[in-house]
Amino acid sequence: MLEKQRKASAFSEASNIYLNRFVPRHDDELELEVDDPLLVEVQGDDYWYEGYNMRTGAHGIFPAYYAIEVNKGTECYKVKSSEWMDRYRLKFLGSVQVPYHKGNDVLCAAMQKIANNRRMTVKFNPPSFCVLEISVKGIKLAVQEDYYACDRSNECSHFFQLKNVSFCGYHPKNSKYFGFITKHPADQRFACHVFVSENSTKPLAESVGKAFQLYYKEFVEFSCPTEDIYLE
């Protein structure tokens, strides 16, 4: 009973709740479990936050994508989550297997590897146009050789359920490059999918963050902060 009261008190003071488990890889990173209450102090432009884990009292930095604001009013989501979708036009550079399911260093290494491979093939195999559709259901990737063609018969589509998207972000030194990491539905394998845009992909990263917020509100539906909630 005392533990529940302490946990409820932490939630009442928290600014955010974390939706995923985060295992630190560096000394300045903060270890987090699913449903941990957070007090965010600094919101970095690189999509990393700095603050306290209200459950443990520890301080550090952590990825912002799963840190959901708890005091945000429901008026921000007047549109039903099932009806909301954002669409972005990009160029698909490719996918590569990665050793870990999250982290800016993992993302940047994958971008660098794909970019290096692309330099050797860009003249005879240029990047394909694609459309990314972001919704509460997941991320749909529709690739087509000619974006302006009326015939869509040669379009290739892939769909990634949101629960299998473990990380996303843009390159910290060039925001025109965007990538997201997915986990295999059955195996313990991860892949990073990399794109480039004519403009900054920061709005795209924000759309993925919004999708997780809506997913959490619609499907996890936490109403009592003392309940144990897990996405898997």
Protein architecture, described:
- With 232 residues, the protein is an alpha+beta fold.
- Helices cover 21% and strands 36% of the residues.
- The protein has helices at 2-13, 104-121, 202-220, and strands at residues 16-18, 37-43, 48-53, 59-63, 67-69, 85-98, 128-135, 138-144, 156-161, 165-171, 174-183, 190-196.
- Strand 3 (48-53) and strand 4 (59-63) form a beta hairpin.
**Cross-sheet strand order for the largest sheet:** 9-8-7-6-12-11-10
Mean pLDDT: 79
Q: Bin the strand percentage.
A: 35-45%
**What would you call the shape?**
globular
Counting DSSP E segments of at least 2 residues, the number of strands comes to 12
Which secondary-structure class do the elements indicate?
Answer: alpha+beta
Number of helices: 3
What is the percent of helical residues? 10-25%
Radius of gyration: 19 Å
Sheet having the most strands:
7 strands, antiparallel
Outline the low-pLDDT stretches: 1-11, 71-79, 222-232
Could you tell me how far the N terminus lies from the C terminus, measured between alpha carbons in angstroms? 26 Å
Pattern of helices and strands:
HEEEEEEHEEEEEEH
Keywords: Cytoplasm, Kinase, Phosphoprotein, SH3 domain, Transferase
Protein name: C-Jun-amino-terminal kinase-interacting protein 1
Subcellular location: Cytoplasm
Family: Belongs to the JIP scaffold family.
Give a quick summary of the entry.
By secondary structure, the protein is an alpha+beta fold.
